[in-house]
Specification:
Helix content is 46%, strand content 17%. It is of the alpha/beta class. The longest helix is centred in the last third of the chain and has 16 residues. The protein binds 3-phosphoglyceric acid.
């Protein structure tokens, strides 16, 4: 189960790529830095092809799909090899589909009522999005004080400077974010930067 792997390396980098070859190089760079659980966000025309290329490459990475908004998208990413699904919000259809297929699903929530809805659906791990704007660490503490068996994956505004603070909360299972895959550096072919950022995040996570 993904939860066990997240405990080893509780950081999930996002890949937003226009080209499968670039996406594969980004995965290599992240893995060189010790990060193996990767989310490809459905925000480019090539996202599904990038996802498929990573899944087919057998790199040992665990690849999931992010920004999954609809049941159709959930069905499609599964066909392309996604091993888990992340959404910015809570779509019951997507959750039910993933539960039927026994695939991990992390819908985004950030209010008590949304956490309650996720809990009612049987979920015990959710994305907390957009983490920074939705109250950050104090908000997660407040939610965790009442939803005592819920774990959170903060995403949105997480970065090298605040990662440790989020991960210090017992209810935070992992953090996700795009700071590990800076578009400008990737466009210039500076994959070494990606590896350095991954190493830094892992060191912070373990520190
Ligand atoms: C997401 O898709 O989870 C967020 O857009 C990531 O937010 P970030 O770019 O602040 O990491």
């Amino acid at each position: 189960m993904l939860a066990d792997q997240l405990k080893q390396a509780p950081v999930v980098p996002l890949i937003q790529a226009d080209d499968p070859a670039v996406a594969l190089k980004t995965v290599d760079a992240l893995q060189a830095g010790g990060l193996n659980i990767i989310e490809v966000v459905l925000r480019t025309d090539a996202a599904l092809d990038c996802l498929e290329a990573i899944a087919a490459a057998n790199t040992g990475a665990v690849v999931g799909a992010g920004t999954v908004l609809s049941l159709n998208q959930a069905q499609e990413v599964l066909k392309r090899g996604a091993q888990f699904i992340v959404s910015p919000g809570l779509n019951d259809d997507v959750v039910h589909f993933c539960q039927e297929k026994e695939i991990d699903v992390f819908p985004g929530v950030n209010t008590p009522s949304e956490v309650q809805r996720a809990w009612n659906l049987g979920l015990r791990i959710v994305k907390f999005f957009p983490a920074g704007l939705a109250g950050g660490v104090p908000m997660i503490k407040a939610l965790s004080s009442v939803f005592r068996d819920m774990q959170f994956m903060p995403t949105g505004g997480v970065n090298a400077a605040n990662l440790s603070e989020y991960l210090s909360l017992p209810s935070v299972i992992a953090c996700g974010g795009s700071w590990l895959t800076p578009q400008k550096e990737i466009a210039k072919g500076n994959f070494g930067v990606v590896t350095s950022l991954a190493k830094e995040a892992l060191a912070n996570a373990k520190g």
